[in-house]
From TrEMBL:
The keyword Zinc applies. This is CoA carboxyltransferase N-terminal domain-containing protein. GO terms for biological process: fatty acid biosynthetic process; malonyl-CoA biosynthetic process. Keywords: Metal-binding, Transferase, Zinc, Zinc-finger. GO terms for molecular function: acetyl-CoA carboxylase activity; transferase activity; zinc ion binding. GO terms for cellular component: acetyl-CoA carboxylase complex. InterPro entries: Acetyl_CoA_COase_Trfase_b_su, ClpP/crotonase-like_dom_sf, COA_CT_N. Acetyl-CoA carboxylase is a heterohexamer composed of biotin carboxyl carrier protein, biotin carboxylase and 2 subunits each of ACCase subunit alpha and ACCase plastid-coded subunit beta (accD). Residues 1-123 form the CoA carboxyltransferase N-terminal domain.
Length: 123
């Protein structure tokens, strides 16, 4: 994702298009957060998935620790922008290591009717 004012303006367009995609077409959207996931991605399409998956130990934040501390004049606790901490706060669904992601996505798609569970069922 690009940074700057043009990119900032595009966040609303991306979020609106995603809303139409999800609500009007009734399609399934899975968001996968890797490290780092920051800024506009966190503020827009990264957190809008029907299912939001994060990788272990991923750094996920809207703003960096230094920016938050300087802006709010408060200390940001260590680890508060890591996937495991945010998972326990309910920010997203499972934490899945990358080597297991294919299997988890396959199960999710099967569960939502996108693939047949058995090749023999395909007609």
């Amino acid at each position: 994702m690009q940074e700057g004012s043009l990119s900032l303006m595009q966040m609303a367009k991306i979020s609106s298009a995603l809303y139409n995609y999800q609500s009007n077409k009734k399609l399934f959207y899975v968001s996968i957060l890797t490290s780092p996931t920051t800024g506009g991605v966190t503020a827009s399409f990264g957190m809008l998935g029907d299912i939001i998956i994060a990788e272990p130990n991923a750094y996920i934040a809207f703003a960096g620790k230094r920016v938050i501390e300087q802006t709010l004049n408060k200390t940001v606790p260590d680890g508060s922008q890591e996937a495991e901490y945010l998972f326990h706060k309910g920010l997203f669904d499972p934490i899945v290591p990358r080597n297991l992601l294919k299997g988890v996505l396959s199960e999710l798609f099967h569960l939502h009717g996108f693939f047949h569970l058995n090749k023999n069922e395909i007609k």
